[in-house]
Amino acid sequence: IIWDGLQVAIMKQEKTQWKLFLETLSAAQWEFTFVLLGVTCLTLVVSLMFTSLWPLSALYFVWLVKDWHTPERGGRRTEFVRNWRIWGHLRDYFPIKLVKTAELDPKKNYILGIHPHGIMCAGGYTCFSTESCGFAEAFPGMRSSLAVLAGLFRIPLFREYIMSAGLLSVSRASLTHVLSKSGKGIALSIVIGGAEESLSSSPGVNTVVMRHRKGFVRMALEHGADLVPVYSFGENELFRQVIFSEGSVGRRLQDLFKRLIGFAPCVFLGDRFGLLPYRTPITSVVGAPIAVPKLLVPTEEEVDHYHNLYMESLSKLFHEHKVSCGLSESHELQII
Fold this sequence. Notes:
The chain is an alpha/beta fold. It has helices at 2-14, 17-48, 54-66, 79-82, 85-93, 122-128, 135-138, 158-164, 172-181, 194-198, 215-223, 249-261, 300-321; strands at 96-100, 110-115, 143-148, 168-169, 186-191, 207-208, 226-233, 240-241, 268-269, 282-286, 334-335. The chain has a seven-stranded mixed sheet with strand order 1-10-7-2-5-3-4, sandwiched between helices. Strands 6-11 form a two-stranded parallel ribbon.
């Protein structure tokens, strides 16, 4: 931890004040997008209905009805947004690095499992929903996309923005469309632990929620998409979260939100008056693919078999790279 802090201090000394400002600005806009942009967009569209500009909202809602199923039909990705320079500044803020350990065949499709979720999944977003970390150069012929909570695509205006960055709905219909109608060379990234895993995000903790999460394995079997584990070392170090104990009022409220809207609000503090994430390096290591056969109707035994192979591969990936990524030899990966 001391060494990581020293590295960050040295990197900051080597950067100009303007570069540091741009990095801070990029981190602030990313956090604003994650926490408040959806609410802001919804408030704006509804508020306009009560002004002289109400036709704008009315026309948009007509468009929204017509375009409702686009997020489940491959979205509306634009390379322009994925290549914004601001993503490079966001990458440098921490910094974030993508590490390749094996080749991915562009004649195949893959489901990449991203671990851990952390508070805001900075590693997963930056590496697989932008081009700032060099995914296309590391894996020629592959096209990466990140699947996120389906409910986000029901928020007016906000849905247009996240679709432009290549984000996809994690619904079954969306994943089926991408894996069956988008050709080959698809690297579909899914944050397996989701909202439940975010609640256990804390510095020094390496816990992933996936022991009972098998839907992504079934999806891989149904489409013959190989499975690839990805571990983002440092993801849990970005914020200090208030962890509510099981059964407490705070935890019950988080569980209620998770059931109602699909995600759990976290209470966390970071750097700069507690608002920004800490400048902690993140290393997203892409593991070797696990060959998966195509089975139109996989049995429970077949799903369990490949699910166990995946957990073993993830654990192996973690232990092979933990020391080089700043953890001690004694660190263990807890799978729950």
